[in-house]
Amino acid sequence: MRYLDEFSDPDLARRLLDQIHAAATRPWALMEVCGGQTHSIIRHGIDQLLPKGVEMIHGPGCPVCVTPLETIDKALAIAAQPGVIFCSFGDMLRVPGSGRDLFAVKSAGADVRVVYSPLDALTIARENPDKQVVFFGIGFETTAPANAMTVHQAERLGVGNFSLLVSHVLVPPAIAAIMESPRCRVQAFLAAGHVCSVMGTGEYPPLAAKYRVPIVVTGFEPLDILEGIRQTVVQLEAGRHEVGNAYPRAVPAEGNPVARAMLAEVFEVTDRTWRGIGMIPGSGWRLAPRYRPFDAEHRFAVTGIHTEESSLCRSGEVLQGLIKPHQCAAFGKQCTPRNPLGATMVSSEGACAAYYAYRRLDLVSIS
């Protein structure tokens, strides 16, 4: 409870807010990259306490949300095959594919299991040598080390009936893609603290310099976010564009060298499609050639699936920060947590889910 109390202190929060109000003299548009930060901002009403004109734009940092529809359909196709045990974290089971989700496949008789670690899936594979066990490996740099270690262990132990359906994406190329968009309004970024705890901060100075935007590594508690906003506004007002660290208790500059070494061994960089956004060059990982035998996409020959998004769903614009969730006409009507059109409504880190859960239902235009 110590950190919950320490980093939610209302007196300290007011002090930080006073400093932000004193520093801000002009309108600024800041993007928090991570969906966990989005939920904290909306839950605590942080965006509503900021100076008028200081706007929080919600970014694409929700791993469930950006997993492409094509990959979801590949997961559904694999899970439905006989002799397969398909393992996933629970937040993927209700993400809609083209026509159904993993819950629907499970209800039709497929062996779909919720696990709490990829190592749980590896254990299931060792206990069921007559089955093909697949783990759905999604996420940003944060979750990738555990998935990499599991594949490494599968090779070391000779567990040939285990494979990984990979959909890992990388934050720095996404920041570049956002800044290259002709509709971009972002003037600064709050970078995802847990990503940087793995990868460090070394990839961000070239982005800050090239696009002339401050990038401040930020945590997830209210005071973390307010301190990140404060540092960002101070930079903007001074005309600086540097990389700052508002989360030093968790993020060293070098990140986690052991995790980074494992990632470099097991994965290689590849182009990756982001749901609702499109293909971003060099924005993902796939298994390196040594570990390609553990690639479920190739093992089950599901490389030729092509899909189309719902014409009603505007989650891609939400993920790019071009609209707020309640500016989608389907929000709260055709699209709800029980009947989601897109992953942003069903994911625990999705911006649409945050707006729905915390009753941000009024349609308000963005200036």
From TrEMBL:
Record key words, sorted: Iron, Metal-binding
Family per record: Belongs to the HypD family.
Highest taxon above the source species: Bacteria
One GO MF term: carbon monoxide binding
Ranges annotated as spanning the membrane: none
An annotated GO BP: protein maturation
Record organism: Paractinoplanes atraurantiacus
One Pfam short name: HypD
KW Transport (keyword) present: no
Protein name (record): Hydrogenase expression/formation protein HypD
